[in-house]
Amino acid sequence: MLRYSAKLKVLHADRTHFCLYLELGKELLSYVGLALLWTGDFNCVLDGRLDWYPPRLHFEVTYDSRTARVMEHLQCLDFWRVTHPALEKYTYHTLTHDTHSRLDRFLITKSVANTVQFVDILGWFLSGHALLLLRCPLPTALHPKALGDAIFIS
């Protein structure tokens, strides 16, 4: 059985806390070479033509290009976009501006991309953000002490 040392990171990149987002990016660079599943609200799009409706050809390149650079260093794929290269499906809708965008995404390192069985964007639920679904059976290991704990076992 293949064994991975994996790290899961969840992100909400609020533009008012941009400096914290940059700090997270620096922290993530310490995980180069590990299996990484990075998910959340990135609050930016990587392709203004496919990931925004109505499409935008000019958008805030600085914020988006930093995300792309961190992805490149970590060897991460925007897995939904890889499996749906031309599909226009969005994860966020704002009534104020009546726009749709794909701000939320799953980034996964290339080393474990072949383990992903399914990825999809589901409907909106309780907020302006859609639910994301990723099926990726990564092997898990329990600490031996947990197996000896009767409460844990029950």
Automatic annotation (TrEMBL):
SUPFAM superfamilies: DNase I-like. InterPro entries: Endo/exonu/phosph_ase_sf. Gene3D superfamilies: Endonuclease/exonuclease/phosphatase. This is Uncharacterized protein. It comes from Pleurodeles waltl (Iberian ribbed newt).
